[in-house]
Amino acid sequence: MNRFVVISGCSGGGKSTLLSELQRRGHAVVEEPGRRIILEEQCRGGRAVPWIDMAVFLRRAIEVALEDRAQARRNAGWTFFDRGLIDAAAALEALSGESLLDTLGQQHRYHACVFLTPPWPAIYRQDTERRHDFEAALLEYERLRRAYPALGYEISVLPECSVAERADFVLERLEGVSMLRPLS
Length: 184
Known about the structure:
alpha/beta
């Protein structure tokens, strides 16, 4: 049974806050590769950040996501990923035309149900790691909304509600999916 669950979607849509709530409830979580890479690169004066070299940044995000998956195999129960492999591969394909998405997406499967945070202007904020504007976040969301189903995933769009209600929605949806059919 695949217990790796992706929380993806619009940048600034509340993914990290939701992951914190799921972790508070006792579930394993994996932080977003991109933010970890940016912090690391900023500390060492590196160039693998989106605003300097997006392609290098995305290739590094793919490496980190693969490492995250390997480490998460040790976890019992659900493991929730703040973005991950598919997000980075879809962005790299859109940027460079490199077609890694199908190969990586089929070789390294997540749970069949992927949760997307929709565009939510009221909570969107730029910060030192998220420098792109809301329009760029919308383009990213649309790319992901197409990429996941193209790889055979079912999308559940998260409602605009409190973080506790979002966590309940995710856990109830996963319980319902696992009761209806085998997990991929």
